[in-house]
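WARN retry 2 of 3 for item q-0093 after timeout on previous attempt; input resubmitted unchanged.
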Amino acid sequence: MYTVTFYSFKGGVGRTMTLVNVGYELAKTGRRVLLVDMDLEAPGLDTFNLARPKEPTPGMVDFVTQFRHTGEAPDVSGYMFKSPLDPGASGELWIMPAGLQDDAYDQNLNSINWQTLYAREDGYLLFEDLKAQWRDLLQPDYILIDSRTGHTDVSGICTRQLPDAVVVLFAPNEQNRRGLEKVVRDIRTEPRGEQKKPTELHFVMANVPDLDDEDQILADNLKKMRASLSFTELSGTIYHYDSLSLLNQIVFTASRPRSRLAEQYRKLMRVIVRRNSDDREGALDFLSELARAGRSRRFAPAAVEEQLAAIRSRHSGDGEILFRIAQIYRRQRKIDEALSLADQAISVGFADVEALLFRAEMNTAKGNRSVALEDVKKIVQSGGGNYIELSAAIRLLLDLDSSLASMIPASPNFSILEPPDRLQIADQLMVSYETLPTAELILRELEEAKSDLRGLVHNQLVLCLIGQGKFPAAKNLISPNEPIPGESDASEVFNWAMADWGQTGNLRRELLSQLAARDASSFTNPNHKQCAALALWAAGNVDGALLMIARAGQQVLDEGVPLFSCWRYLRVTPDTFLKDLERQKEMTSGASVLPLFLEHGMRRDSD
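OK item q-0093 returned
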């Protein structure tokens, strides 16, 4: 039960209308909501366009009057009514009006001395009993209280004893600023509950003229309000809305849900919900906002930690919420707490791919590799993931135990991927000689599919075959006959020459010499430059080859991204690529060194 009072120092800001629209939207989206009219001198909650019983219902004034007559708090069920919602709404809306608007209303209201009620008639206990009855009878998610304006005893009850939060609506002018200073100060200095928690304050600028502010009048006044009332951000802004529908007191979130005014009420509702730790949707929204905010200063550290603890306590059996908190903790470098929460989240049923991947990454970082591997295997073998998650799981799998790569093509997650995503997975697998056979399997299936990716698949398969030492198959895939430089694609000529080198042990230097003669500007990436260096060396241009190796190394340092190396015929990290360039430099300078893909092919043949 989360109680929110709507308060304004002066009228004319649409306080009651804001409360009704926020309350209706809460109920429409599945919450049990009670609206309470405590604006007893000018009641109007029950005048809005909401369904009500045919017979008038007594309310707050009648409830307090009955208590004063009997000395016992009456059964509150007779002092409120249920207002049916429109079809499609999934919650409940209850209303406790100010009272029966008959000839006795003013007399009953005027007979209540609120100071005497509290000083001599146990008024404080009466309202504590009322809160308990609301909770026990309705089990509401939200209670919204419409408070009287100004400095009054009733407004004090509404803003200090009853609520968990107060929505302060104001027009940005000097009268409101001065009047609100004391009210806000009193709210802040009166902690509530056994834990002495402060009341949450939401500041809402309301009935704001929607005009150009060329002279900075609105901006300057709002700056004064912020300084005087000590807040940094508004919880909402309700602009003046020109519509005769206001005269009929319609509920905009019900009757005109796509209007700008309805959206402003919904935004305020979301802010209120976000600060209610008991509300699951609000808790998830808060955690999502916190994750997006990064290092934003709008979240006070103490308040964040307090709300995280409250959410964790109230939703200890909700796996998704526990997991979202774990993600926050990881960003805070609370590694052990994050891992513990991830364990809890998965143990209560939130064992989806994202959570398993998170836990696997955490365990890998902590050195628990065998534990991490079990989660990765579950991801690969299960369904329900997407390309991003499967891609991350595959990288982790290859790091933990690359011998398990063969399980990837049989994964339910893999089977639902589109061809471009499968091609990307195959590319990921071209990182070691151990995983190339699985990459080949995927590429063969893609080649048979005859999709628009056929050219890319063909090129990748050629590289995959050369990397495995399947040189004749690679040559045949490129061209049944020896390619002719100038007529065939340069990459095909180069790869055919490399495959022929692997098969025969002899480098066809004449094939590479024409590649070496190409303009250096055509070698755009480090891999192109690496291949050009090898061609220059084959053509006898050692100085040109060394210069091209140096340029490739510098570009790698500048860009720092993984790339393909023709020294290994594998995709490698920048550091490994630089090591390959050093070995290539040694070969170019005359050392008895061969590219690793040739050495691997020789070992394969000997096996």
